[in-house]
Amino acid sequence: MRHHESLEGWFPDDSDGTGNPNDPANRGRGADVAVRQHRLTKYRPRKAKKIASWTSIGLGTIMIMPVFDQSSRQPGYETMSMTSQVIMALCYMAMFVLPGAYWLWRNRKDSQIVREWASTSGEYWDVWESLDPMTKAAFATPTDELPLLPKRHWWAIIIAMFVLAFIGGSLLPPQV
């Protein structure tokens, strides 16, 4: 498979590679190819990213627990309505869950794109190589183009987290 180093991490038997568009080795190869390689390399699923995503979802789940446990109330919370407590807990829960859930969702979509591209590209190359020269002339030569993964919009997630923190914080009871 071509561009093997850019696909490292997406398939279990891959070797290491960089794919940085600023790398001198990528100059003159076209910005589009470098961007595709960079995104494939940057967005590859790693164990640390998976652990961090699931940890943020777990912490978010913990944030909703005090709503259900009325016995461990902090001073000042007894003056809050149950609606305010639930909204505050949901804001803090969403603030923690959002980055992990977004990463897991984007990773799933990216993995589908890479798997579909690998399957289609591999099948096309297999068929192409089995054709005789006269038949090959009638068909397009297979390209070496990598899949373009959509850019991740972490800025929107960060803004949403700040908004949720502000809303949740505005519902906190006044400190005595």
Automatic annotation (TrEMBL):
The keyword Membrane applies. It comes from the Bacteria. Keywords: Membrane, Transmembrane, Transmembrane helix. The chain crosses the membrane at residues 51-68, 80-105, 154-172. This is Uncharacterized protein. Residues 1-30 are annotated as: Disordered.
